[in-house]
Specification:
This protein is mostly helical. The chain has one domain. It comes from Paenibacillus mellifer. This is YjcZ family sporulation protein. Keywords: Membrane, Transmembrane, Transmembrane helix.
Length: about 35
């Protein structure tokens, strides 16, 4: 798990912000498809 920690520490806020946005977008797509 040290590799993941290093990646998070290296990218910092940029990685976390884009990651959260991507996760939310993917969840929205999955939910919309399941509802439709």
């Amino acid at each position: 798990m040290s590799g993941v920690e290093e990646v998070r520490g290296g990218y910092g806020g940029l990685f976390t912000s884009t990651g959260v946005i991507l996760v939310l977008f993917i969840l929205l797509v999955i939910v919309s498809r399941s509802i439709l």
